[in-house]
Amino acid sequence: MLRGLAVTPLTHAQFGPFRRLHLTPAAVREQYAGRTFVPVTDLMTDVQVEQLRGLGPVVLVALVGTGTPAVSPVGLLRATLRVAETIGAAVVAVPLADHASLADPALRISVLASYADTDPVVELAYGGHLLPELADIAAAERPRPDQQGLVLFFTGLSGSGKSTLAQALMDRLLEQGGRSLTSLDGDVVRRNLSAGLTFSREDRETNIRRIGWVAAEIARHGGLAVCSPIAPFDETRRQVRAMVERAGGAFFLVHVATPLEECERRDRKGLYAKARRGEIPEFTGISSPYEEPLDADVRVDTTGRSIEDALEDVVVALREAGYVDLTAPDAPPAPEPVPEPAPVPVPDISEEVAEEVAGARTSTAGSRPLRVLFVCTANICRSPYMELRSRSLAGSGSGIEFASAGTHGFDAHPVDRTMAAVLAERGVSSDLISGFASRPLTDDLIDAADLVLTAEATHRQFVLEEVPGAFRKAFTLGQFAESVARVAPDLRGAELVTAVGHRRAGTADHHDIRDPYRRGKAAAEVSADQIDALLQAVLRRLAVPSTAEAGER
Questions:
Q1: How many other CB atoms are there within 10 angstroms of residue 473's CB atom?
Q2: pTM for the model
Q3: pLDDT at 187 (0 to 100)
Q4: Contact 422, 344 (CB under 8 A)
Q5: Which of 31, 155, 184, 496 has the fewest C-beta atoms lying within 10 Å of its C-beta?
Q6: pLDDT (tens digit, 9 = 90+) per residue, 85-94?
Q7: pLDDT tens across 125-156, in order?
Q8: DSSP assignment, residue 476?
Q9: Distance between CA atoms of 325 and 195, rounded to whole angstroms?
Q10: Would you say 105 and 68 are in contact if contact means Cβ atoms under 8 Å apart?
């Protein structure tokens, strides 16, 4: 811990949201001596609030420095104040930044100690469900991909076709409507935002950072920005990505990877020829490098392709990421037989649940199985996890048929690689994972299911818009798990579904399973943990006891 150091403020910050909460350590020690200090970096859950209720008088220390909170500083403070009102706690804002350094933990301890002095500092427990009263803040701070501010960033050599592709995408977006849209084309920005800059490396990087700043502000307010500069340097592109993500937007990088030879062949302005003769210094691809991105979301080579054909690569990638769907609806694929793997060990869901489901049946002899359909957006992440995890847990003899589909599902895509890794770590066989193929949701699939369980309330709404008659059998997974507690405990299988259809819990934001797609392994594991907990409640109630077990009971 860093001791013996003191910070003397030269002046007190007078402006900014919740400035009243930014107290000095001395003021905090004087006002709140004898309380328990609890650092807060994210929206709180029901488990954490119960923990706080048992600590006595507390001070919630909202760590709002750059890179520390999981949401925006303002969002964190709004949420923390709401919780504080319900438990009678005080709130203090501390601008502790995360420097991505090994020294960060020691600095955190030292800063908290400067506020708490000798009073205890207690960390919040993990787990639980988001508080319903924070749902509106969560929706604003963590919008679904299709509601998030978005920066579409095209990069490539001069003549690669990036501006043409960007304009074609703009046309498609304008035809669809529904989003505010801004074009930040390289040449246009040069004439307006960056007039006076040269083409030196330093000035080119400044130009890209200016584009990035404007695009990030557009994304901050939920808009969509389409940028198409050359942007040859990897570090500058990464800086733009960081700007956008700090603003709460999504950054989608399109590498227009048309080879240099093809770009020179298209050279209508004669720029490459002049660069070859030395008339244009520091020309990207000739006398200045182009650093190909390794983190592009999609790579497009326009050589020998029409604009429409090349654009389709971008459109499909955007749809797969869940940001925007500009594709025409696909015809539903012919249903494929579902493989029936043998049961496998399930290490992180209780053995009691696994044995109860694997040793049960869902119908009397001779009747058909109970059909459960899981639904998410693209059918490559959450709903495949639900399906494959359930099939692995239940085994082939359970009498339950599990399937999945996506409201905007792809044809025959594998499980997302990150989620596939999580499935494998949790005991799902490689054969089961590799045998999965995504598909779009159809009316026939909904009609054939006895129970439709969705990842989010928006997916359930989609189901009901397509098949209004599915109202009694369509739930979010979280809603169904909560609803089963409302009916008689001896009801199982199809009888349970019927009863729950008449005594359902209302939908709530905390029921939704957050989309972990492209958010990394940690986000995938969080979603998997949430799904596992819900499946643990659901599967044991769907399974009907075998005849012998029923007799014993």
A1: 22
A2: 0.55
A3: 74
A4: no
A5: 31
A6: 999 999 999 9
A7: 988 899 999 999 998 888 888 889 999 999 99
A8: E
A9: 36
A10: no
